Amino acid sequence: MHTSVNQKVLEKVSKRIAPSWPLKNFVAVNPYAGFTDTPYADTARILGSRAGIGMTMPLAFYLGQVKDGVIQRKDIQKALETARMGNTSVDTILGKAQKIQKGQPQSGSDYNLLDVASRIELKDWNELLIDRVSFWAAAHFDRDVSVWKTKSSGKNLYQAWKLEAQIDRTTEIMGLPGFRSAIKQLPNNPLEFIDAFLSQLGLDEEETEAYLHALLLKVLGWSSYISGLDFHNSLYDGNKSNLTEFLAVLLTWENYFLNHSPQKQEIKAIWYQKWNTGEPLSSQNESLKLALLFQDALDFASQRELKSVFQKQKPLDSKAEAKAQMVFCIDVRSEVYRRNLERVNPQIETVGFAGFFGFPVNYVPLGHEDGKNQCPVLIPSSALVKEACTDQKHAAKKRISDHQIGKTWKKFKSGAITSFGFVSPIGLSFLPKILLNSFHITRPNKDPKQDGIGKWQKKGKMLDLSAISLADKVAMAASSLTGMGIKDNLAPFVLITGHGSSSVNNPHASGLDCGACGGHSGEVNALTAQYVFNDPEVRNKLKEQGINIPEETIFLACLHDTTTDEISFVNDSWVPESRQKELADLKQSLQLASKHTRLERTLRLNIEGKSDEEIENRVKARAEDWAQIRPEWGLAGCNSFIVAPRDRSKGLKLDGKSFLHNYNWKEDPEFKVLEIIMTAPMVVTSWINLQYYASTTDNQRLGAGNKTLHNITSGLGVLEGSSGDLRIGLPLQSVHNGEKFEHLPIRLNVVIEAPIEAINSILEKHDHLRQLFDNEWIYLHCMDEQGKISHTYHKNLQWKAEEKVAAQVVESVL
Fold first, then answer.
1. Which positions does UniProt annotate for Zn(2+) binding (predicted)?
2. 514 appears as a binding residue in the annotation
């Protein structure tokens, strides 16, 4: 192939690898994101063939769901009709599944020369590649964790690997003679090497794509992390060729077996024979076909249950005037709290909105030079916000000093010689702290938000927004209030409630924080909103745009700790003395709602106690237990995204499994707000849902494995044990309770109350959204004005009315 054709293939292959983010801002990602242009079932066949990746559960799991009554016969019948197998009986399908439920899962074919060489020589060269590449990549991408640094810093990935591979004798010791010499002979330009090597293979364009994709899947963890670097750089004009350079690294191994291995002739002969008739896809076995059918049935069962829940909704009484509005993130954990809060105090109106609240800020803590992006990873941050306090100069100096001392102390403990001096005379002195931490009397790790700041400075968090122009503040405020749908009926108090989690000794802690805030707590975004909305200049400018914030309305930032379900006020010093009684009443309602929410969550956490107080204390203790592998369930169970007025879901028990976004199409005449919801929050919720889905169906390849075996590597990810590939996705303990799966692999159900024509118009405009539904990655439903699910989307902008729903669908206004 020509160089230009190779470049086209490289770009296509790179897009097939979904990005992954480091531990400090770990966010849920759809691992199938590179295949949304391909039908779900076809992707299952491709990934199974190229890498042995499973996209369904074992048949025994689905049969268990049938036995438990989760999947009913009518769900299987619907799946058969959808698959155009309506003439096949349910009993026949169940009988087939019973016979082959213990069949072998689909395994990958021999796509690469490494695969063929491993079979011929009876040695797992793939394992050696993974170990050596992972060992090198951990050193190359190290984030100031290692004491000893690699010499290859400053070089691109391919050049750094060449330097490493020429001095690492492990490959030759393990049985690859001349490997270092073969690396040395390669050109220094990665594209030049790739072009020459692919020309030597002689595959056509489609075959080359399959071949290269299978190679990247061998080291999927590092491939995903590097894809994440390119994704991030694409937002901020950085280097976007990292994954191509990494592919060149992997091809150096293929080059060895093609041109330098003692068995190269036999390897080439067998490999070319396998590719003689095109991509060597493994046959789609009967087990996979049945599993795909039963997965459809499980999804239909979930939809049946969801429709049934909304069918029970009755028209609500006219709303009393709200004394306060509380804006939550759409996160499924907020559903439980919102429901309990509305029950405790009906005069508090709750709102669901993306958890960065429309303020995509870059936040710089005291004593730091670089900031962190507090916004969805799909968009760049656009506003600089700095942490502030009453004695900023002193606090910054103290924090820097504390960090420097801590870094020096860490080097002392980790040094090749000094570590011995540390363990013997000093190690025993840590015994009291170990005991105090174990009994939850002290916190094993300092809270980074408060590290280096004195107690007298912690009373109320402060921000410096001087870098944001008035025009930008006004624009963000107007967009935010419009999106929330409250700009015309603001209450005396508006509580902007971000969320975060509390856990210790948990590498994936940021995965429990707010994904809309880039894997960070939403505290900063909420406080930024408080500053902006309470700014008199901003309010005056908003009034010129027709948005009138009443003088008595006070915006306050709150933080919802999803582990303990405590609600704290970030800085309530802005409330005058005359309104302290109102604030106290609000806090009392929040405390009661927190209690009810904690008690409800204990059912999923299997926490028991002699009294409510004891149970609550056990829930709170999980946040400080460094042996706790499940501090909370996060978003496990997420299966639906409801885009409608709160009245449609208010009072319904959705069990913390639904994302709730407030939206009233009658207040959105041009459907611009709906378009934003479908192109941003909806995509994010699909990423979260499919991340949990993948970590459940194949935790070995698309999940992070056993949390108790994790070792942090390079400060950016985890290994399971001491070697192997970087682990992506969620730990097994995030989806499994030790006895059964806490998360059922169900594709997301998006439910929107809006005219079908408006929804179709947005799908026509954004092909990537339409692909999600047309290719059955997620499902789409329309809700009528009575809160009933009335229509379901069926590919190509076609909809089907629900038979048992009597209410009329939302009429078109277009």
1. 329, 331, 499, 514
2. yes
